[in-house]
Write a structure and sequence with these properties.
27% of the residues lie in helices and 24% in strands. The protein is α+β, with helices and mostly antiparallel strands.
Length: 805
Amino acid sequence: MSMGKSLPHDAAPLHVTGQARYVDDIPLPANALHLAFGLSTVAHGDILSIDLSAVRAASGVVAVYAAEDFDHVPDCSPSLGDEPLVATGKVHFVGQPIFIVVAESHHAARRAARLGRVEYRELPALLTVDDALAANSRFENGPVIWTKGDTAAAIASAPHQVEGRFEVGGQEHFYLEGQVAACLPQDGGDMVVLSSTQHPTEIQHKVAHALHLPMSAVRVEVRRMGGGFGGKESQGNWLAIACAVAATRTGRPCKMRYDRDDDMVITGKRHDLRILYRAGFDDQGKLTGVEFSHLFRCGWSMDLSLPVADRAMLHADNAYHLPAVRIESHRLKTNTTSATAFRGFGGPQGVIGIERVMDHIAHRLALDPLDVRRANFYRAMVEAPGASPPDPEDISAEKTGQGEGDLTSRGRAVSVGSHALAADGAVQTTPFHMPVEDFVLHELTAELEQTSDYRARRAAIADWNAASPVLKRGIALTPVKFGISFTLTHLNQAGALVHVYQDGSILLNHGGTEMGQGLFQKVAQVVAGVFGVDPAAVKITATDTAKVPNTSATAASSGSDLNGKAAKAAAETVRDRMAAFIAEKHQVPVDKVRFQDGMVRVAGEEYAFERVAAWAYQARVSLSSTGFYATPKITWDRVRGQGRPFLYFAYGAAVTEVVIDTLTGENRILRADILHDTGTSLNPILDIGQVEGAYVQGAGWLTTEELVWDGKGRLTTHAPSTYKIPACSDRPRMFNVALWDRPNREDSIGKSKAVGEPPFMLGISALYALSDAVAACGDGAYSALDAPATAERVLDAVNRVRGDV
């Protein structure tokens, strides 16, 4: 058995020894050139003149390209076609590329790029959502509005109401490897592109378009990325297109990478937004109606803002049944860098809004926030978790069981028993009218509440706070319900290629990309399970558009679901051919053949897998196959906001305990307890790593990671010295993580569930633990803590609840 085993990341030894090769490590021919952009220094303005004479005369410069050097400036946008490679007469944000320098070295290109002289006529810059609203500057003609029920009446007739305004900041991806690409011109004008991208097919499409070539003339290869987090879904287009154009014009290989400061200035971030809310509820805190307005600051171009804002609307309910709801979403166009995909893809922005409502209601009623959350949960799933029908018998003898239980937990018991609940009525639906049929948070939350000792700790914290005038503690338990699938339906597909060589070795290629998350290892385990061999026998190869075409981005937490299924289909085709061959040889039915433990067993005989492969080759049996998978059951009408955009939901919950210094606002996360739903995990240790990292990244978004633009639209937090991601010392001192190891009721790969994005939202519990600590400083006012809850914002909130301001 290989699926379900806690195996190390396939490249872990290479990572820790520095031998893993990234794009910037790949040797290029000696005549390779290097590129850099000349960037805008104003947020909005007409370009009156460009003097590039000093740039062209600089040492090492081979060529310089501005808009006038193109018949048609190539477009870099993943959506609307509104991102010219270089500015065409007007600039729209500080950091927009205006010209391209091609030089003999990276440093020569960067030095020369600073010599350009651009004269502007500055125009008024829209920098905030208020600016954009006042100017009616937006994408789409107006706000997108979804409704369910009579929300206004439901709120007006409720015994209690709350309303508020919530500012939520953006987030820098801060991948370890910055944006980078290299292009190698080939015979006949073809191009090979090496790119640090989550979306090789997007790069292929954009480069082919820029060079006026068919996609078949462009090959994109991605072995690995040093992190992506969504920041390499569309932002790599600029570098790849620039290199491809320069390589075509010079006939020499070209490479481009951003230095960290340029990377942070040029590239998009997580969307920041303002959330306005109004809610009505009863004495137990159960919602009767809720209204949200999302004011998204999207930046200067559309990029992926529409689907990001859509997903925020799709997750505005999180774990809660909203009988009457109105969600209004404004996608506002501003003169700032274009916001883009980031882990969760708008989901966290939707989830945090409803969690704010729950926190506010609990404060108004003086109830435990967990009781308010639980009162609003969706009804439990009809059957107990794991009650889905068993898989049909598999000739690989692969078992998709519970995995190695002791490896699903760190620092706590794996399970405290079953708490399956019967449904108490009809299935409830989301604000977009999708039935919620797999809801497990009643059971999961009960287990976490017990194993984390939540109730006793809350009481102890209250006693501690009463005796501590300066330091105050807080605790919060928040849940997550996250939909899994691309909301753009046609992206829910994947392909794979599997070869078995005559010596029994196996080669695997698929459309997913590896950015450190362990996707390649998981898919290799799937293929190994089909053939009944050790995963080490499966050779994992670089993602390559010439091997598997028309790939979707490795995003939406879909990497294992899509590519695992496609690889399984390809491997099963080859295995079944081998089985049919050996069954005929022994005159037995095919279902009597077993592939297990590196052996093929048939008719009382046992042969090594490699021996059967050699026999099949000699018998002219094809040992290569493609595989394909398309996610079933998906239907989505984006305009109406109705349908089933997700195959299933992934769930989780986290308890976070914090302490704040009321004199300075300084704060620390003391402890985190997490129970997360991964279905039947394909690789528990990799999934635990994903949960741990996602929680810390989510907590960083809401505490220390503050993006600041000045009044001229310049990003002032453009380096590690001014932008603070969580360090190792910022992790919880006590960090208990366990997996909710119950099979997915849907037919996912190995009955697993996606784990890339859902646990990011577990970090939301850190913000509401801080809110709880701040509330302990006063006796009435709600803390209304904005995000990120930096020390300054925490101190301001403490002063507010004390009535000092």
